[in-house]
């Protein structure tokens, strides 16, 4: 079966900038995770800022972050060691300049988070307490309230945001599309407010901080907001996407059939948890000399292989040997989750298996967080900065969001001058072509797509299943991309179909196994594999 790609629309909905309600701002921030919140606070030091989030401010990947934020905080550690660990994990695709930039800013930014009110766990002498995670050669992961780091970082930033006189924050505002003029300059966004309906926010500078796309997979650690909207709207507007074949899978999420997947933090293994198969056998050293502390991609694939060998749906985390009281003190959130399923980690094994966790690819940015579209910056998980290469080192993403959130804000503020302000508020009209093709149930498509991605663009892939995946997505696209929806469910489904196709296509182009991208038909790393990075730009923008 060969299915033609439906015409790629510029906007998902009709645009009429004259008759739609309008808001004006100097800097528009889309997203309220660590990247969006931090950039809004930075930009608000000198400019007026509008921040929008499609759900409550508290609903983000950031909020659910557990293990912590990596930074050089101890005497026996150095920036160079953290840089080397990041580059080693990234399997040859990290941009060294970017790695050095991000890692070197870590200690200062942890200090800023403390000053903004984040309650990191402290040692008796008042220094920030750290732990070890896979791929790190030193203990350098700062955490808050044990295993609820994200909630305490985001919570403090949200408190500061709410009291800031220069920030207008709007919850339940769904960004549908970036607005661009004929020179491909971003002028703001067209979106939909849950109560007030369609609105346009004009801004000379827009910061895209919409996070990742874990919801594209049936098994994921991500909350429902992670549907890849930012990547999809940037692509429609003509931004370059890069490294979309690299979806990182987390080795250990709680596996209880029928329940949603909850992350079991890597810090558990960092502090001595072991992995056992269904026969009680500790298998990780059969696969890698670092055992449970091997990089995530290796642990995820090893778990999958051991599940196959033992014909089992999961493996187990074992923390029964932890010193008395240690588990409750360090991992209170996970303790509560286990309790709710009648698992007592001091006596019982915790059933786990891998799931989709972190989107390494995204909107291509440079060292100034700048995209290829004038007026548009991107930061956090939506961006592809070059920090992670082909595999992200644990706990480096919160740090990346901080560093590039700040950089994006400083650049966005500088750009919001009188000349740039005079470019917004254009007359832009766009009419979506009406289609009479049958309607599909978007809830069904969404669920089927997630199962398809899990099976065909998962922890391991191969040509046949990837091309089959593209064909099936193209078929669904014919019936979904031609419609005009009036609620987030429909726009999310369109965004998910768009991003899934780009991921499946990028995975077909990389004819090697590198980092989180493992091809059964090309099982080895191939240094001659070119191009080094796979970039995707909508065909009519080439
Ligand atoms: P997010 O925090 O995901 O925020 C995205 C924001 O964009 C949300 O406010 C959302 O509402 C908004 N948004 C999205 N689409 C739209 C739209 N169309 N319109 C309007 N708003 C929109 N990383 C670490 O470094 N350390 C950890 O310990 C860690 N633990 C993790 C645990 C879990 C369970 C998960 C899921 C991830 C974890 N990560 C961790 C990864 C890390 O949390 C994320 O990469 C990071 O928080 C992303 O931040 P962000 O600001 O880019 O996006
Ligand atoms: C975890 O706590 O295991 C997640 C850390 C991360 O994703 O960086």
Quick structural overview:
With 542 residues, the protein is of the alpha/beta class. The protein contains 15 helices and 22 strands. The protein has helices at 34-43, 61-64, 79-89, 96-115, 149-162, 229-237, 266-270, 296-309, 326-330, 332-340, 397-415, 418-423, 442-456, 463-480, 488-509, and strands spanning 15-16, 21-24, 27-30, 49-52, 69-70, 130-131, 141-142, 167-170, 173-180, 186-193, 197-202, 205-208, 241-242, 247-254, 274-276, 315-318, 350-359, 362-364, 376-378, 383-384, 429-430, 535-536.
Write the layout of secondary structure elements.
Blueprint: E1 15-16, E2 21-24, E3 27-30, H1 34-43, E4 49-52, H2 61-64, E5 69-70, H3 79-89, H4 96-115, E6 130-131, E7 141-142, H5 149-162, E8 167-170, E9 173-180, E10 186-193, E11 197-202, E12 205-208, H6 229-237, E13 241-242, E14 247-254, H7 266-270, E15 274-276, H8 296-309, E16 315-318, H9 326-330, H10 332-340, E17 350-359, E18 362-364, E19 376-378, E20 383-384, H11 397-415, H12 418-423, E21 429-430, H13 442-456, H14 463-480, H15 488-509, E22 535-536
Parallel strand pairs: 2-11, 3-4, 3-12, 4-8, 12-19, 18-20
Antiparallel strand pairs: 1-21, 5-7, 6-7, 9-10, 10-11, 13-18, 13-22, 14-17, 15-16, 16-17
Helix pairs in contact: 1-5, 1-11, 3-4, 4-11, 6-15, 13-14, 13-15, 14-15
Q: Could you walk me through the main structural features you see in this protein, from its secondary elements to its overall organization?
A:
With 542 residues, this protein is of the alpha/beta class. It has three domains: 15-246 and 360-421, FAD/NAD(P)-binding domain; 249-357, Alpha-Beta Complex (Flavocytochrome C3, Chain A, domain 1), CATH 3.90.700; 433-541, Fumarate reductase/succinate dehydrogenase flavoprotein-like, C-terminal domain (Methane Monooxygenase Hydroxylase, Chain G, domain 1), CATH 1.20.58.100. Helix content is 33%, strand content 16%. It has 15 helices and 22 strands. The strands form six sheets. The chain has a five-stranded parallel β-sheet, with helices on one face. It has a four-stranded mixed β-sheet with strand order 2-11-10-9. Helix 1 runs parallel beside helix 5, helix 13 runs antiparallel to helix 14 (463-480) and helix 13 packs parallel to helix 15 (488-509). The two termini are 28 Å apart. The model has no long low-confidence stretch (mean pLDDT 96). Residues 30-36, 52-55, 59-62, 64-69, 149-150, 174-175, 209-211, 221-222, 225-226, 229-230, 263, 358, 380-382, 395-398, 401 line the site of flavin-adenine dinucleotide.
């Amino acid at each position: 079966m060969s299915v033609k790609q439906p015409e790629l629309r510029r906007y998902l909905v009709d645009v009429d900038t004259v008759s739609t309600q309008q808001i004006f701002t100097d800097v528009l921030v889309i997203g309220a995770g660590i990247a969006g919140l931090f950039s809004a606070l930075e930009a608000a030091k000198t400019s007026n800022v509008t921040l929008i989030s499609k759900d409550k401010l508290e609903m983000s990947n950031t909020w659910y972050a557990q293990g912590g934020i990596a930074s050089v905080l101890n005497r026996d550690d150095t920036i160079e060691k953290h840089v080397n660990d990041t580059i080693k994990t990234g399997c040859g695709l990290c941009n060294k300049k970017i790695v050095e930039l991000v890692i070197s800013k870590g200690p200062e930014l942890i200090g800023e988070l403390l000053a903004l009110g984040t309650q990191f766990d402290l040692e008796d002498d008042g220094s920030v307490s750290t732990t070890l995670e896979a791929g790190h050669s030193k203990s350098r992961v700062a955490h808050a309230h044990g295993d609820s780091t994200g909630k305490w970082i985001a919570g403090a930033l949200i408190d500061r945001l709410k009291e800031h006189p220069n920030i207008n924050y709007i919850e339940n505002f769904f960004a549908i599309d970036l607005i661009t003029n004929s020179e491909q300059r971003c002028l703001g966004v067209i979106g939909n407010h849950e109560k007030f309906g369609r609105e346009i926010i004009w801004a000379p500078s827009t910061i895209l901080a919409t996070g990742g796309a874990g919801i594209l997979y049936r098994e994921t650690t991500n909350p429902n907001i992670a549907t890849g909207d930012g990547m999809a709207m940037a692509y429609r507007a003509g931004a370059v996407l890069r490294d979309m074949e690299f979806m990182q899978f987390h080795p250990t999420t709680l596996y209880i059939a029928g329940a949603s997947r909850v992350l079991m933090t890597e810090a558990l293994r960092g502090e001595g948890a072991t992995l056992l198969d269904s026969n009680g056998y500790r298998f990780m050293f059969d696969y890698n000399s670092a055992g449970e502390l091997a990089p995530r991609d290796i642990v995820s694939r090893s778990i999958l292989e051991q599940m196959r060998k033992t014909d089992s749906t999961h493996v187990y985390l074992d923390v029964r040997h932890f010193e008395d009281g240690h588990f409750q003190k360090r991992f209170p959130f996970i303790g509560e989750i286990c309790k709710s399923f009648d698992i007592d980690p001091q006596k019982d094994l915790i059933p786990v298996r891998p799931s989709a966790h972190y989107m390494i690819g995204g909107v291509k940015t440079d060292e100034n967080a700048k995209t290829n579209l004038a007026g548009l910056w991107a930061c956090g998980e939506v961006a592809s900065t070059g920090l992670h290469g082909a595999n992200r080192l644990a706990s480096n993403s919160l740090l990346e969001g901080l560093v590039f959130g700040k950089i994006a804000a400083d650049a966005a503020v500088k750009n919001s001058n009188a000349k740039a302000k005079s470019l917004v508020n254009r007359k832009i009209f766009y009419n979506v072509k009406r289609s009479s093709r049958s309607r599909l149930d978007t809830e069904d498509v969404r669920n089927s797509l997630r199962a398809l991605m899990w099976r065909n663009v998962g922890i391991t892939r191969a040509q046949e299943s990837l091309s089959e995946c593209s064909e099936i997505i193209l078929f669904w696209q014919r019936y979904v991309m031609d419609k005009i929806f009036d609620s987030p469910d429909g726009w999310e489904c369109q965004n998910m179909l768009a991003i899934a196709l780009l991921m499946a296509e990028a995975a077909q182009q990389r004819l090697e196994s590198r980092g989180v991208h493992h091809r059964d038909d090309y099982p080895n790393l191939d240094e001659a594999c070119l191009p080094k990075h796979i970039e995707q730009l909508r065909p009519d923008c080439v």
